[in-house]
């Protein structure tokens, strides 16, 4: 059986007559069998609650500006509804909800409210489109937290929905802790608010206590009793929030509450990126989300909230499309679906081949080729051995280290051809930064002065001017290793050659002075570019690269 054709995919015929689907997603055909047995919606609405439940993540507090940036990004991502906040919570939160509601976004803007007029008034003052009213209904919440009877709960729920509707709001209602509430009582609340005109009913698994099978059954029981559109809101306490959200959809929900990167109370909520991709890949259900923007929005939310995405996080994690093991890399390089269930670009990511103790010759060779460097078979074998040994010592091995090892084997790393003899830079207030360098290039002493927007820019410009104007700065990365004004920094410089666009080299240096560390990294990159250029030049016995 082929495990490569997604539902509804026409597919293309690959080299050996093998069908490569053109949807960019490659999941098991067994999923189709489930679909045949269930009626599924064609489209599911996405309510994003990153700015409300997501902001309830411990230690997360977003500024007004950051909230606006995230709302804008979610709108561009295409979510149907943005739960912008809980206006009664604080003046700042009320202001943020109002600003987001007034930002002219395409998405419906929703505010969270308890089932009372004061909360709903705060939402009305925020000019939102909709309110998400909640009231706990499980016995433990009614008895121990709210200390109200079931009758009182029903009365409060009905009054709140009526009040919201009288004020022209779209009303969504959640029985908080629904999954630990008896179905009988839930039906009573749901039918009462249905009569009061509720627009949508959400079913929260508030403390993430359902299994997918139970969630599907639970939602389908509720589905039988009400015609109001249903949503699910699943928490991740047992790591089942995404599975439970999908099960909720199978049970009859047409809307899913999610957060970017799965942020939220305690273990978080169902992750938007996972729910959207799984709905599409497994069930062929579309959403309004532009999946190509997922990686960007994930990064933005991570930066603004300060909550790092775990590297092995599905869809948006650093490692989601990274490959190290030799067998995997070999497979990936011939057909990516061998070890990737979806193409990285459909979620806005890029594939990366990581060098490490599991790397094989294919990975190492293909990475060197990207930089225009090729090794003899025996040299490559030796390099793979060195790569494994280096990685086994626990050190990070990225392109700069790989090159250092490769040049070591080529025997060209020991004596650098380009040496920095003198270096001065002047900078200050109302003064154009100017750098002067004297460099020894394979025995020939050259000097140049250049200006720049800052001392680093001026220094790099002077060095390029001395060596060759064909040299282009492809990337400059500065990272602080330690804190404080005397922090150690690490600079990585990537250089290219405008005459031979295939040539790229990297240099890296660590030091406490940003300018001299940048200069050191550039000298290293220049020496490597020199070697690359000579070896790319073939056997014409050229001695000078520049
Ligand atoms: O998890 C939950 O129950 C909630 C409610 C506010 C719906 O977030
Ligand atoms: Zn929640």
Describe it.
- The protein has about 550 residues and is of the alpha/beta class.
- It folds into four domains: about 1-35, no CATH class; about 40-305, Alpha-Beta Barrel (TIM Barrel); about 320-410, Recoverin, domain 1, CATH 1.10.238; about 420-545, Double Stranded RNA Binding Domain, CATH 3.30.160.
- About 40% of the residues lie in helices and about 20% in strands.
- The chain is built from 17 helices and 18 strands.
- The protein has helices at about 30-35, 65-75, 90-100, 115-125, 140-145, 150-165, 185-195, 210-225, 240-250, 270-285, 295-305, 325-335, 360-370, 375-390, 400-410, 455-465, 515-535, and strands spanning about 10-15, 20, 45-50, 80-85, 110-115, 130-135, 170-175, 200-205, 230-235, 255-260, 320-325, 350-355, 420-430, 430-440, 445-450, 470-480, 490-495, 505-510.
- The protein has an eight-stranded parallel barrel, surrounded by eight helices. A three-stranded antiparallel β-sheet has the order 13-14-15. Strands 16-17-18 form a three-stranded antiparallel β-sheet.
- Strand 1 and strand 2 form a beta hairpin.
- Helix 2 runs antiparallel to helix 11 (about 295-305), helix 8 (about 210-225) runs parallel beside helix 9 and helix 14 (about 375-390) crosses helix 15 (about 400-410).
- It is elongated and about 95 Å long.
- The model is unreliable at about 1-15 (pLDDT under 50).
- The protein binds 3-methyl-2-oxobutanoic acid and zinc ion.
């Amino acid at each position: 059986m082929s495990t490569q054709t997604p539902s509804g995919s026409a597919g293309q015929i690959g080299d050996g007559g093998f069908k490569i689907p053109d949807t960019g997603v490659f999941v098991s055909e067994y999923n189709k069998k489930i679909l045949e047995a269930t009626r599924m919606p064609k489209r599911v609405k996405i309510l994003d609650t990153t700015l409300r439940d997501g902001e309830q993540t411990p230690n997360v507090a977003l500024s007004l500006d950051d909230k606006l940036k995230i709302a804008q990004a979610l709108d561009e991502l295409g979510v149907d509804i943005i739960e912008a906040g809980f206006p009664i919570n604080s003046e700042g939160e009320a202001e943020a909800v109002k600003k987001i509601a007034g930002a002219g976004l395409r998405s419906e803007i929703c505010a969270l409210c308890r089932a009372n007029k004061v909360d709903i008034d705060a939402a009305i003052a925020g000019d939102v489109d909709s309110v998400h009213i909640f009231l706990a209904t499980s016995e433990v919440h009614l008895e121990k937290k709210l200390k109200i009877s079931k009758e009182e709960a029903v009365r409060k729920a009905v009054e709140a929905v009526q009040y919201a509707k009288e004020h022209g709001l779209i009303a969504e209602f959640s029985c908080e802790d629904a999954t630990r509430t008896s179905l009988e009582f839930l039906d009573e609340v749901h039918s009462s608010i249905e009569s009061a005109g509720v627009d949508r009913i959400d079913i929260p698994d508030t403390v993430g206590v359902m299994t997918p099978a139970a969630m599907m059954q639970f939602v389908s029981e509720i589905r039988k009793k009400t015609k109001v559109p249903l949503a699910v809101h699943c928490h991740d306490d047992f790591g089942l929030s995404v599975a439970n959200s999908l099960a909720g959809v199978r049970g009859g929900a047409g809307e899913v509450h999610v957060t970017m990167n799965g942020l939220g109370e305690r273990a978080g909520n169902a992750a938007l990126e996972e729910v959207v991709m799984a709905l599409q890949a497994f069930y062929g259900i579309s959403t309004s989300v532009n999946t190509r923007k997922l990686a960007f929005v994930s990064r933005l939310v991570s930066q603004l909230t300060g909550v790092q995405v775990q590297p092995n996080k599905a869809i948006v994690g650093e490692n989601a499309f990274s490959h190290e093991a030799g067998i995997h890399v070999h497979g990936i390089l011939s057909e990516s679906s061998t070890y990737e269930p979806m193409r990285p670009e459909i979620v806005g990511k890029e594939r990366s081949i990581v060098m490490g103790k599991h790397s094989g010759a294919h990975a190492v060779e293909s990475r060197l080729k990207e930089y225009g460097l090729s090794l003899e078979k025996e040299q490559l074998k030796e390099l793979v051995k060195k790569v494994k040994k280096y990685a086994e010592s626990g050190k990070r091995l990225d392109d700069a280290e790989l090159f250092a090892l490769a040049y070591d084997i080529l025997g060209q790393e020991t004596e650098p051809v380009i040496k920095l003899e003198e270096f001065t830079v002047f900078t200050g207030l109302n003064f154009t930064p100017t750098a002067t360098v004297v460099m020894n290039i394979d025995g020939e002493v050259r000097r140049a002065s250049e200006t720049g927007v800052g001392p680093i820019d001026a220094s790099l410009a002077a060095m390029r001017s001395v060596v060759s104007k064909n040299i282009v700065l492809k990337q400059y990365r500065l990272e602080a290793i330690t804190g404080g004004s005397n922090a150690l920094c690490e600079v990585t410089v990537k250089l290219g050659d405008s005459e031979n666009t295939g040539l790229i080299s990297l240099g890296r240096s660590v030091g406490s002075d940003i300018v001299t560390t940048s200069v050191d990294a550039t000298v290293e990159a220049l020496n490597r570019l020199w070697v690359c250029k000579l070896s790319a030049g073939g056997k014409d016995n050229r001695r000078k690269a520049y």
